Amino acid sequence: MKHDTPDQAAGQTTRDQAMMEVVYKIVHDLRGSVRALAELPNWIGEDLEDAGLTLPEAPAQSLDLMRQHAEKLNMMLDQLSRYSKTGYRETENVSVQACLDRAIAALNLPDGLRVRARFDPPEIDMNPDALMSMFLILLGNAAGHNPGPVRIAVVGRCHDGMWEMLVRDDGVGIPAGKLERIFDPMSKFSIADTGGAGMGLAILRRLADSYGGLVDALSPRTNRHGATIRVRLKQPHRG
User: How far is it, in rounded angstroms, from Cα 172 to Cα 154?
Assistant: First the structure.
């Protein structure tokens, strides 16, 4: 198998960073216009109301549809912005359970959804906001891509200089043949309409890359449904 030299790897990193800067600038330029487009139906409705007019049902539905699409595009731009800004960050010794608890508190999880977690060791070297973002994506996906409440198991452990975390749910799982493609930006393979832009797992993988790690999806166990996402992050050697 051919491996890149250090110079080639450094060159690729520089090109990736340059591309992300271009993406960020494009997103920044588009955002104002998209937000104005999302507000346009409201402005039209307010102007008509001030004039004592009522918009007929068909045009009102068209304006509402335009607003929905503009809001979805704005969400996509927001996720692209986060994707482009994800990079190397300083780390600290952080409680994994505390980051998980913060994520659960921030998410509007459906009633009946249960999360079990076990971490050994209980602390790792990571940026706490980045780790919380990982949990937001993983738990949010498990909750949003299934038609009903699911059970989620989160297990983290250190192995061969890497911190490995498995996040499993008992939902509908990942479509056959899509285990790798789910990490492509703007990829959506869920049977549920989550309203998202398909950027969550792409952001997750980019976060892991920033810490010298990787993310992949594992094939379901025999006779068991659900999705399993594995996150592996490099940890410093402790003598």
Answer: 17
83 to 66, 77, 115, 175: CA distances (angstroms): 26, 10, 26, 24
Residue 35 has pLDDT above 70, yes or no: yes
Q: Which residues contact 156 (CB under 8 A, 6 or more apart)?
A: 96, 117, 118, 119, 120, 124, 163, 164, 165, 166
**Largest distance between two CA atoms of the chain:** 76
Which residues, at least 6 apart from 236, have a Cβ–Cβ distance to it below 8 Å?
Answer: 125
**pLDDT, average across residues 137-152:** 86
Euclidean distance between the first and final Cα of the chain, in Å? 32
Q: Cβ–Cβ contacts within 10 Å for residue 201, how many?
A: 20
**Which residue carries 């297990």 as its tokens?**
155
Which residues have a Cβ under 8 Å from the Cβ of 231 and sit 6 or more positions away?
A: 134, 138, 164, 165, 167, 204, 208, 213, 214, 215
**pLDDT, tens digit (0-9, with 9 covering 90-100), for 44-55:** 888 998 999 888
Rounded to the nearest integer, the mean pLDDT of the chain is 80
HSE-CB at 132 with a 13 A cutoff on CA atoms is 14
pLDDT of 92-136, one tens digit each? 899 999 999 998 988 888 888 999 999 999 999 988 888 888 998
Q: What is the pTM of this model?
A: 0.66
Pairing outcome for strands 228-234 and 214-218: antiparallel
Q: In what order do the strands lie in the sheet with 162-169?
A: 114-120, 151-159, 162-169, 228-234, 214-218
> What is the Cα–Cα distance from 140 to 203, expressed in whole angstroms?
13
